[in-house]
């Protein structure tokens, strides 16, 4: 009995320590915000980290999907005290549809509210990440930032050889010729390959058009780097992929310049939440076992992503 009492005391002590830290953290944040109440103009920093996807039934409930960022940016644009936004990107890209959703939302919000958005590349801005960055007014990167991987990848699984070795046959009954197109249980036909190549080429042209429109470059200039390669920031500057090299403060100053703000501004950043904590824990403990789990093989991948 005494052992259980000791455990209970230990648990209560731990909870009290955690609660105390939370109270101290909140009070310090309140003091900081209250000291800056007199500052009217604000610049928001939004961190776009990781792959860009729509949430589906197989996704972890704690992941921030594309709609999270769409809602976050929309709410910030609507705020009268927010004069501009720094979109801090560290992303290898994501699905074609999700990336385009975020890109077009940024373009729409910029036009509707006439507020500048500057992208800051904290580490990686590749493929769909660069697609989204192209919607921003300026792109600033740290000196070691990796930018590029302009292109599309479509992957279709094929485990027919494995199934044949272990004696498994898959019977397919379909209503039309292409109903099981992309099936992982058989070889792809030449007609199906041509169909998928058409999808890739169309999505690639959409990527090129987005860069031309967003970066105000000619097609000839874009095609110099739109071959899937990645570049370090100084190379990206030379190719006009980005506008300059600097840190986050430089990106903030660029927003102030575009928004014609003089003097001090308040910087709004997302406060760490339990969601962020659990997302970090799960991302570090998943051990990449999914790549060995046939249950998690994607039948069809259509993405702007750097791998």
What does this structure look like?
By secondary structure, the chain is an alpha/beta fold. The chain contains 10 helices and 11 strands. It has helices spanning 2-35, 66-78, 96-113, 128-133, 160-165, 190-215, 219-223, 233-238, 248-259, 274-285; strands spanning 42-49, 82-91, 93-95, 117-126, 138-141, 146-148, 153-156, 230-232, 244-245, 266-269, 300-305. The strands form 2 sheets. Strands 1, 2, 4, 5, 6, 8, 9 and 10 form an 8-stranded mixed beta sheet that branches. It has a 3-stranded antiparallel beta sheet with strand order 3-11-7. Helix 2 runs parallel beside helix 3. The N and C termini lie far apart (55 Å). Mean pLDDT is 82; it is low at 28-38, 57-61 and 279-297.
What is the CATH first-level class name? Alpha Beta
Using the 3D structure, state the CATH architecture. Answer: Alpha-Beta Complex
Multimerization state: single chain
User: How many independent structural domains?
Assistant: 1
Largest sheet: 8 strands, mixed
Fraction of residues in β-strands: 15-25%
Q: Roughly how many Å is the radius of gyration?
A: 24 Å
Number of helices: 10
Helix content: 40-55%
